[in-house]
């Protein structure tokens, strides 16, 4: 008898509680991409790309994208606006990419990200980027490379991170750096070419704390910055002019892949301030140089010297841009705080970052020159 | 270190009760000297059964009784009448191949065993001759336990042939066979076989005690015995391994287990059994050890697939679709977007369809069974997807689960696995991943608690014995399996001496030296 009633109780417990909290995958409207812009009166404009699966086909397909826009006072308000226009429930848990418009980025990106960090069912591994102009325009682009625009942008961002053009950050990874004074972020900057119907990678948008300064690095500078930051992607290619003479014109250029690199960042405190030396050794494999004669050691030395000079000069430019944007992407502040805490206490990083001396030096060593002699 | 052997109070009570032991006195009835009274007693006891033949000999001075349905006419002629005709013996009662008794009850039993009974007027001594007829099929490979390499012999319905198959493979004086009679009415002949000196005597005693405690009228097959003697009949897991393969029986006897055979069934039970024994197949030992290990790992993986895959799938698409890899989201979404039912109902329909097809396929004759397989599998499978009742992913999941459950070399465990899918499906569809965790937790707790003849069922994982793991998840080379597994608590643990010394002596001096120093 006792056993029977216990069994009944368990059955009731399972079947009659009424709080079946299942979320059916088939009833979710999956948001694959989201963009945020600032409207003229300071509201948030959220444009999302919704996955519309193709049904009734024999083969599994990628599905199509449906673009929907909502304007609200903050992130969730804008989401609610979108939800009102969608069949089934708005679900951001498989978000692939998050794009932020230039104007909003210049103000404060954390204000829209806060909702992502706070609610548990958000995909924090969504990739994040800044779009020049209005971000929503990126979703208006129709590309035939991929069936959905969000997937196209994800592919683009993955590729630039592989080629050492961006850190490959996602929503999760930038969180700590947004709050830490000693380190800043640099997000990939995209541009929308409306006439050509394209989304392009432009460079790195330099952030100070939670906002975009407006200064950006171009693709070549981005690679150099990432190498100085010891963050080489799968490949890092450098193409530079190495001679003024030579015909045809393209023979004046040399392309190399960095096979190995050695970054040495040295902070020397002196009298309440610091000076920084960045030594970057690049071991490269020449992949294109039509003038050849790379078997000659003198030629190699000459090229190495030329490349080192060029790159050092460029590195200096990059550093000056960083200081101008007040964007401590290299985390010099964090290192100072960790290793020279007394000096750090004396300094006001908000102001002093612009004034410290940072001396970069790039040294190129040509190790290989491809499969031809 | 042996495993702790539990002995509850009840066990002791059974041991102390005298009535349960074999010392219950059999009824006796001394024979009479008058022929007619003897015959009258016997015919009455056998309820005047029509197939009992009484041949009156010597002008009414003697009679030969036998069941014509149990006796072989040729044997009768050969054993009894031919010697008499040859004139070497003048009376049937003096034939050397006959046995004597003066107990009519005993005479009844031998009659039922198919012997012929010779009764003489004026003599209390009854002679009986073995003229039993048997109809045997050949020792073919069992249909449900096929192997690729190795012996293709299988047990048959005759216990004598079965014991013969065992003895032929195990020519050692320590192989001990003990007979029992169970089933008050069926009087089934049962035998246990074990290696004296390897098998733990306590285990043998326990097995004997349990066999003797069976008081049922009918014992038809080892399946009956299994339920009477197993430790926990409420458990879904089979606690005795049944097999129809002599090689498997020998291997288990040699590792200190007891084999139980019964007349009338080719199935032999291995006592005690562990969970992992159900995943060992003779094929593992016939193949090279690397491939044997690989196949065994696949088989063990099939356990997880068989009980967990539908539950996992339901939990993912009903609760936690965040875990679907990004690239799989669009295909999965498009597969299930237009399905009318919740995944729980979908899975139930599909699992039950598969069970129906399987059961129908077994019951029907071979050619029709195949048709059912094709109609059920292909036509229904395709149609339910087109009709939008069930998503193609669910069909993949359930089909994979069914296949995984058939990988187990034991039919009983395969049924158990398919049964265990259901509670896990229910838990997954109500509580998601946490439900699966609870379900698997309960199953594991049960497995760890379960005992088979006082030995742990989940050995050697729990209690953990690293040494025995070498023939559990993997199968290391046979010459390294030099100790018997501890799960049956054998008294002789060493199973081989030094092997492959030639290799060591020839190649490496170092190991030779270390061996010497030992």
Describe the structure in your own words:
The complex is a heterodimer of chains A (373) and B (518). Chain A has 2 domains: 26-229; 236-373, GMP Synthetase, Chain A, domain 3 (2-Layer Sandwich), CATH 3.30.300.210. In chain A, helix 4 (110-118) crosses helix 7 (171-179) and helix 8 (219-228) crosses helix 9. Chain A contains 12 helices and 13 strands. The model of chain A has no long low-confidence stretch (mean pLDDT 89). In chain A, the strands form 2 sheets. In chain A, strands 1, 2, 3, 4, 5, 6, 7, 8 and 9 form a 9-stranded mixed sheet that branches. In chain A, strands 10-11-12-13 form a 4-stranded mixed sheet, sandwiched between helices. Chain A has helices at 2-15, 75-85, 102-107, 110-118, 136-140, 149-162, 171-179, 219-228, 297-325, 332-339, 341-346, 349-352; strands at 28-38, 44-52, 64-72, 89-91, 97-101, 127-131, 186-193, 198-208, 211-218, 237-241, 253-270, 273-288, 357-368. Helices cover 34% and strands 32% of the residues of chain A. With 373 residues, chain A is α/β, with parallel strands linked by helices. Chain B has 518 residues and is α+β, with helices and mostly antiparallel strands. Chain B has 3 domains: 35-130, no CATH class; 159-273, no CATH class; 285-456, no CATH class. Chain B contains 18 helices and 12 strands. In chain B, the strands form 3 sheets. Chain B has a 5-stranded antiparallel sheet with strand order 1-2-4-5-3. A 5-stranded antiparallel sheet of chain B has the order 6-7-9-10-8, sandwiched between helices. The radius of gyration of chain B is 30 Å and the shape is elongated. Residues 1-24 of chain B have low confidence and may be disordered. The chains are: A alpha/beta (373), B alpha+beta (518). Chain A binds chain B through residues 14, 20-26, 28, 30, 32, 51, 53-57, 60-63, 93-94, 96, 121, 123, 148, and chain B through 316-319, 321-322, 324, 326, 329-339, 342-343, 426, 429-430, 432.
